[in-house]
Each structure stands twice: as structure tokens, then as C-alpha cells.
Amino acid sequence: MKLFRATLLAAAVLCATSAHADDKPLKVGLMLPATGTYATLGTAIENGFKLYVDENGGQLGGRKVEYVKVDDESDPAKATDNVNKLIKGDKVDVLVGTVHSGVAAAMAKTAKDTGTLLVVPNAGADAITGPLCAPNIFRTSFTNWQPGYAMGEVMAEKGYKKVVTITWKYAAGDESVNGFKEAFEKSGGEVVKQLNLPFPNVEFQALLTEIAATKPDAVYTFFAGAGAVKFVKDYKAAGLMDSIPLYGAGFLTDGTLKAQGGAGEGLMTTLHYADELDVPKDKAFREAYSKAYSTPPDVYAVQGYDAAQVLKIGLDAVKGDVSKTADIAAAVEAAEIDSPRGKFTLSKAHNPVQDIYLREAKGEKNPMVSVASKALADPAKGCRM
Ligand code: PHB
Hints:
By secondary structure, the chain is an alpha/beta fold.
């Protein structure tokens, strides 16, 4: 009788546990910018994420997905409070975010401390898959180093010798320029001046005057969102477009060409996505995204879509039990992700190992010119896992 009761009890506990995993909705905390210079990037990521979840019956790992949203305003000063609100207040199962490297670094620190599952669908902060790397942290975008490094090789090959860089003074800008400089100087080029302004300022005039006076062979830049729109327009209006060729990480022209109103025509950039790729998954994705949101997708939409894909791969392996970090990590590490950008895998540090494309802006598109760097892996300096 005692044994029978014990068995019953064990069965009840087992039922309760699996019922918990299967039946309870999966709370996804979307921490993204809804205001400020990166607002449109946040929207595209959210749209991409939701498109994938909808294509999978509104579920991930067998659990119905529910969303809790926070506007992080791309403000690092508010990041820790925002992420704690999601983890402790809303008790989310999974964190997805964000765009800004400084905000995402704070999210990664908290995720590492608490063990909360985190998928980063944009921010390139090298540290997230460097010193902050952890079994429960994944990124579906890039490191800031990656597009910069690829462009350093491209511009050296084009024969430029002296380049000025210009960007926002924070992790994304600094690391993008560092990646560029590493590859460019390795091939004999020289970065003669590094110009900066605080994020998200857009008073470029004095710096453009300095570029004109310095007369470099070319300029390398990292700007994104509304700031990229203003920068390209100002560069053109200053009469520099024809005299000092402008290059950049692809964020300069991704999702921004329409608003640039033709000023960005012909700009060459490097990125892990491009228009008109010969990738079957991309064709289906572009059609579904355009139909759902009445606007074409960009790199941010792809990264959001792939964040949901990565979560599904991990959560399917554990039937939705987010506490099984090691099994989730093992499943994701073994997977090939069927992305619209082309298939990619995640490195041991959980950052995409991916092709970086050279693209040229034409109308409102960034078609691929060539593969600038095949299966480029970030060096993941400082990652111990
Ligand atoms: C970043 O802060 O890491 C960042 C922001 C916007 C981009 C790319 C990177 O388009």
C-alpha cells in the first residue's frame, strides 16, 4: 500500500512537471527600442520574431508564446532596471533583446548572473560572445568586429592607403572601427584619424569639415537607424560623396535607403545579409514578411526571425523546459540554422559563423556584389565556457 501510494505520488509529481513544461505559456520578454534613433530597428526585429512564431502555430518548444514588452529607449542607464523588471517582475522565461550594444551588455550580465535564457537579435557588443559568454546566452546577429573586419580587407584590396573613420563613441562604433582597422592595417593601410561624436548625436557638420580638410583616400563609418539617414544625407550635401568615397558597415544602408531619398545611391557596405540573395529560404521569408507587414524586410527582421528559430531548436530539445540550459546549448550548437541570409552555425561562444557580403546600394535595395568574407568567425577573445 505504501509503495502504491509512493508510486502514485511520483506519477503525480511527474505529471505536474511535464504539464508545467507543456501547458504553461512561454513568456518571452521582448526588450527592444520603440523610441529614439533605433526605433525602426526594434520594430523590424519584433516583426521578424513574431513571423517565425506565427509560422509555427504560435508555439516554441511545445509551449504557447506570450509576449511582455519593454521599450529600452537604447538607454544603457535604464538597462539593468528594465531587465530586472522583466525577470523578477514579469517572470519571463526567455529574454530577447536588444539593438544597442551598451543596453545588451547589461542584459547579458544579468542573464549570466541569473541563468535566464537570452537571445540577442542585434547588438554586436564583442563582449557578449567574449568575456560575457555563457551557456544560456545566444546571438543571431553578428559581432561589431565582423562587418568592420570584412570591410578592412575590401578597402585594402581596392588600394586605399589613408582612411578616416567616423562613428558614435560607444561599443558598437568603437568595435566596428577596431575590426576595420585590424584588417586594413594588416594589409598595409593606415587609419589616419578616428572621428567620434556621442550617441545618438547627429550634429555632423564640424566633423565633415574636418574630413574635407584631411583629404583621406576614403572614409569608413558605422552609423545605423535614423542617425545613418542623417549622416548619409549630410555627407552628400557637404559635397563629399564624389571626392572622398564613403564606405561602412551595412547598417548604414540597411532599412535606411528609402529615407535617405537617393543620397545613399551606390554606397558599398559589408554585412551578413543582402538583397536578391540566391537563397530559397530568403525568397519565402521576404514574401511572407512583406505580406504580413506591408513592407520589405531588412537585416533586423532577419535577425529577429532567426532568434525565434534558435529558440525553437533549443526548446524543442527540452520540450519547453527553459531550466535545461546545457541541453538547450547542445542542441543549438549542433544545429545549422536555415536563415534567410544563408545557412549558418553558432560558434562555441554562440555567435554566428557566417558569410559577410559586399553590397552596393541601388534604389531602395542593397544587392550583393560578392562574398567579402566566407564563414567569418569572430575571434571570441576572452570567452571561457
Ligand atoms: C549596436 O549597438 O550594437 C548596434 C546598433 C545598431 C546596429 C548595429 C549595431 O545597426
